[in-house]
């Protein structure tokens, strides 16, 4: 929850080690608990709103391509439904 609050406060200015831009407007929120690494995918909408698409437990060195594609698909669906003001 603390990282979500940090994301809310910092917005687009939140960078590594807490967040990173993946591609096409999709970002990841990064956290580690013990040896488990978690990623929460999100994008910005209407400049100051954050839409969370989904989260994963990261088990490989790189974020799986299918998860990035999934987040991009969720983003495209959202924009088609609610408008593309990002």
What does this structure look like?
A four-stranded antiparallel sheet has the order 1-2-3-4, with helices on both faces. It has helices at residues 2-10, 65-82; strands spanning 19-23, 26-33, 36-45, 49-58. It has one domain (2-82). The protein has two helices and four strands.
Quick gist of this model?
The chain is α+β, with helices and mostly antiparallel strands. The chain is 31% helix and 38% strand.
Describe the largest sheet. 4 strands, antiparallel
Give the H and E element order.
HEEEEH
- Number of H/I helices: 2
Secondary-structure class: alpha+beta
N-C termini distance = 24 Å
Rounded mean pLDDT is: 94
Flag low-confidence runs: none
Would you count the extended β strands for me? 4
Placed side by side, the strands forming the largest sheet appear as 1-2-3-4
Summarize this structure as a short list of keywords or feature phrases:
globular, 2 helices, alpha+beta, 86 residues
Show the helix and strand layout.
Layout: H1 2-10, E1 19-23, E2 26-33, E3 36-45, E4 49-58, H2 65-82
């Amino acid at each position: 929850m603390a990282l979500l609050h940090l994301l809310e406060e910092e917005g687009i200015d939140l960078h590594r080690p807490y967040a990173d831009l993946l591609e096409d407007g999709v970002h990841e929120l990064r956290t580690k608990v013990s040896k488990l690494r978690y990623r929460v995918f999100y994008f910005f909408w209407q400049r100051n709103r954050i839409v969370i698409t989904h989260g994963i437990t990261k088990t490989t060195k790189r974020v799986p391509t299918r998860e990035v594609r999934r987040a991009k698909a969720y983003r495209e669906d959202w924009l088609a439904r609610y408008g593309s003001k990002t």
